[in-house]
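Write out the 3D structure for:
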Amino acid sequence: MSRLTDLSKRILVGRALRSDKLSETLLPKRLALPVFASDALSSVAYAPDEILLTLSLAGLATYHFSWKIGLAVVVVMMTVVASYRQNVHAYPSGGGDYEVATVNLGPNAGLTVGSALLVDYVLTVAVSVSSGVANIASAVPSIGDHKVLYAVLLVLLLMGMNLRGVRESGTAFAIPTYLFMFAIIGMTAFGLLRYATGAEMHAESSGYGIKAEDSFTGLALVFLLLRTFSSGCAALTGVEAISNGVPAFRKPKSKNAATTLLLMGTVAVTMLMGMLALANITKVHFAENPAEQLIGAPAGYEQKTVVAQVADAVFGGTFASPMFYLVLAVTGLILVLAANTAFNGFPVLGSILAQDRYLPRQLHTRGDRLAFSNGIMMLSGFAIILIVAFKAEPTKLIQLYVVGVFVSFTMSQAGMIRHWTRHLKTEQDPATRRHMMRSRVINAFGLVMTGVVLVIVLITKFTQGAWIAILAMFFLFMLMKGIRRHYDRVRAELVADTDEDMKLPSRVQGIVLVSKLHKPTLRALAYARAARPSSLEAVTVAFDPDETEALRQEWEERGIEVPLKVLDSPYREITRPIIEYVKNVRRTSPRDVVTVYIPEYVVGHWWEHILHNQSALRLKGRLLFTPGVVVASVPWQLASSDRVKVGAVYNAPGAVRRGEPTGKGDERKP
């Protein structure tokens, strides 16, 4: 079983890497862009949907606002990109927003940012994968009937790819990401060229009207536009991932990260505005409830995504066009791969929080491929729960989205302003001061923009589902505070007191537990005698008089020098009499240490664990809570354990080449 498990792991994850090979996993810019920017780039696939969908609540009267809302999103996007270019230079260690907020605004602010980002990363996976499945279903309708299953399988696939390491996942995702960029920008250029030459392009929904759900005038119209803007700001998610992933870049890390940020922002806003322009030109009509809102649509009409309708109109008005399927395929693929941004951000942030003792320390441990494997698996588990709970519906999930990322944006900008202000107090060089003042202005403008968006998002999306994300952030914040208190309490308890903790016990009293007089018992007795405790006795529990008497006689016949003590058990219990006896020994001599030796079988099959060692496990579990008691397991290897002993030295393919044992012998030779 051990050999099979190890081989399966090597096939899925790959050969384990040495810790000193970490530098070989660092990313050049051409791979860092698809790894860290796929989330922001993929928003082109669903941000136009959300903008048009929200505007459709007022019918077609407000559709002319779509490009203006897109421009507002672009302004916020480029402001955030410019701000984060300052962050990666000032804080290149990979802490990102969490480090900025912690250092400049205090631990609680940092923990608020950390909880917001962790929640947002989980939502990124759920939204991206669900949107990807929805886009693929536009081309292959049968997938829509089982979209939850497909979404879950895709999350598991992404998890497996990321467990193989950051560089491997980046190489695998580079081609689809660049294909998506080529497809969308190429479609935009081709569509605008056709429009400029007078060609008619009509989306399949262009002939349908949209029934307004209400009359939107005055403040109601303003609120609708603000809500649309907040939905469109989903395009900004993923920008912060690069600031969290600076350590994954090749040197010079900060410069490469800043360049990648600028590339990401430029490409993302180009594709977003291109899609909105084509949606207006082709007159895409997109409704939240097409069966009721679309006027003139045939019965059972399946509404396709904005990207699908635009691609159909641009490439000749036939769904049989190869370019249509190419655009849909790479769009669905990039939406799924967009989740990879979270698979890189969540584990790194979780590792930093674990290092600061806010999360379990296991999240700070690197796996075989030098990735934070525990964080990757935790992210996958939470994302699958959300996908199943919300039935892989992107429109429902996206309402929970954006809140967390704008909380981190806003607090990060506030932290950077304090960062520059603090450094300006001591900096004397005029050129450096000018640079710092310019950076502070950029971050101040970013604070205003992201703060306004955060308020808008909270107002417009709170009742739509954002309250769930806020509640999750609060719960995670309190959980991490509790974990930190636990670690602090344990650390305080374990501080060595040189006067008290170095004192030797008065005596060591040994107790060997005996059930039968067989080889494991004799080995335990021999080991206990070799340890030379101050006193040593054997203890057995009498619940069958005949067996107890037979044991006593054999004990005397063998002439064993260790005295045998028999404990009565009128209710046929084993654990309780031994625990009470050990506690009584401790009460009699509180300055003594009692060492309990327990013979224990070592077995080779999983089912043998059920048949053996159950009493030993219960005893150990109880004795561990008894102060002044040390439990020593004395192993006895059964014949079935030989197969495990051989398998224990089995290595992955390549072991011979590396000079490691191959499992052909029973043991490693010195």
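The two ends are 26 Å apart (CA to CA).
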